[in-house]
Amino acid sequence: MSCCGQKRQAFESSRRRDASGVMLEYRERRPVEVRGEVSGRAYIFSNAQPIQTVDRRDAPGLLRSAAFRER
User: Fold this and answer.
1) Alpha helices in 1-71 (DSSP H)
2) Is a pLDDT exceeding 70 seen at residue 10?
3) For residue 24, what are the contacts with CB-CB under 8 A and spacing of at least 6?
4) 58 exposed, middle or buried (CB, 10 Å; 0-12, 13-18, 19+)?
């Protein structure tokens, strides 16, 4: 039994997740936890970790705030 199909499927799945993300930069100094409007995922931004990938569907809601910008 070959495992190549499983590896290929896992690789394609991870590529799709990466393709659906948007890099956002948090521009404030104080740490903040925000929840994506669509995915419901919690994102924690801080001065130490200001740039993160967020779900493409959540990006418009976060970008409405001046605290975030797209990278």
Assistant:
1) 4-19, 59-63
2) no
3) 51, 52, 53, 54, 59, 62, 63, 68, 69, 70, 71
4) buried
What is the distance, to the nearest Å, from the Cα of residue 48 to the centroid of all Cα atoms in its chain? Answer: 16
Residue 61, Cβ density class (10 Å: 0-12 exposed, 13-18 middle, ≥19 buried): middle
Whole-angstrom Cα distance, residue 34 to residue 66?
A: 14
What's the pTM?
0.69
Task: Write out the two tokens for 61.
Answer: 């809601």
Radius of gyration of the chain from its Cα atoms, rounded to whole angstroms: 15
pLDDT in tens, 14-52: 444 555 899 999 999 999 999 999 999 999 999 999 999
